[in-house]
Design a protein that fits this description.
alpha/beta, seven-stranded mixed β-sheet, six-stranded parallel β-sheet, 11 helices, 15 strands
Length: 342
């Protein structure tokens, strides 16, 4: 098969299109013919180096978010058959520890991730445990389905589980046109909240408005007083922030007394300085999102398939167009997901 194989760290030149042996599924695995695979920030970070996930080894095939057709199934597989259209949950775990047994493989001490530290979907085929293959209904395209796994599950967990958004609340969403925030805006609106979208361009804010955001703010604007005015002087109930160092103080300062901040990324840096007095005097809650569970992945798919939600795709590229795909994904003008289609 053809696959994009990473052999070093650096720019797109460390990844090349090669012919390698087809993966062989085990008795409980399925072999999936990849029809689309979304680029994620993890793919970019691990290409640049150093590796983010423990257990990462070169050569490596990236690509976490896979959708395609089942080509073959192992002898012990039940419920999934060749020809089925599927999308893959990329979080494997070790499969044997207590966390994995409880359906929480993302917190496994020896976590394995398809496309993260095991072979992924930037290839014609990928072999995965059958339990991770979820059927895609006929009304959802495979390219659309490939835009869901990582971003929508992360947003579901951060917004609904950890953030516990409720009807009538005001939710501040940073980087509102990124893949995960596009999902978060819609999930918060679906829960009955008002959404304050913060983004870096008119085009990104226009998308947030189209997805239902109630207040649109440029990230170079005076966000905190604008949020106060919008909430009658109170502040937001919940802030969702995966940007990190550049926005965390603004997110905290925008909260009402007793408000909560969910952090689930550090795009602009990992270390911040905050006022502990400001946190404890105002009764703020700082919540790390952590990993989604298998049950949340299934719930997210069911909600999406039910209608009323939209995955935004920016562009699609072939395997031989990887430099252009990376450039699109890394651009500050990027809106939505970039897909690779073998």
């Amino acid at each position: 098969m053809k696959a994009l194989v990473q052999t070093g760290f650096g720019g797109p030149e460390v990844v090349s299109l090669r012919h390698i042996a087809d993966p062989v599924p085990g008795p409980r695995d399925v072999l999936v013919r990849v029809r689309a695979c979304a680029l994620n920030r993890l793919d970019v970070l691990q290409r640049r180096g150093p590796a983010v996930l423990p257990g990462f080894r070169l050569p490596h095939i990236a690509g976490m978010d896979v959708a395609g057709h089942v080509e073959a199934a192992g002898d012990e597989v039940r419920g999934i058959a060749p020809g089925d259209r599927v999308v893959i949950d990329p979080t494997l775990g070790c499969g044997t520890c207590g966390r994995c047994a409880a359906g929480d493989p993302g917190h496994c001490a020896d976590v394995r991730v398809i496309g993260g530290n095991t072979a992924g979907g930037f290839a014609e085929y990928v072999a995965v445990p059958a339990r991770l293959a979820h059927r895609v209904p006929g009304h959802v395209g495979l390219a659309e389905a490939a835009a869901l796994p990582s971003t929508w599950s992360t947003a579901w967990h951060a917004t609904l589980t950890v953030g516990a958004v409720a009807a009538g609340e005001t939710v501040l969403v940073q980087a509102a046109a990124s893949g995960v925030s596009i999902a978060a805006v819609q999930l918060a609106k679906r829960a009955g909240a008002r959404v304050v979208a913060v983004a870096g361009s008119d085009a990104k804010l226009a998308l947030a408005a189209d997805l239902g955001a109630d207040l649109l703010l440029h990230n170079d604007a005076d966000v905190v007083p604008a949020v106060r005015r919008f909430t009658g002087g109170e502040g937001a109930d919940l802030a969702l922030d995966h940007v990190g160092a550049a926005t965390l103080k603004t997110s905290l300062d925008s909260l009402r007394a007793g408000g909560r901040l969910v952090t689930f990324g550090n795009t602009t840096g990992d270390e911040v300085t905050i006022s502990l007095a400001g946190v404890y005097h105002r009764g703020l809650r700082l919540l790390g999102s952590g990993a989604y569970t298998e049950a949340e992945f299934s719930a997210m798919l069911s909600a999406y398939y039910g209608g009323g939600l939209r995955a935004v795709r920016m562009a699609e590229y072939g395997l031989d167009e990887l430099p252009a795909a990376f450039a699109a994904a890394e651009s500050r003008a990027a809106i939505g997901k970039v897909l690779v289609r073998p």
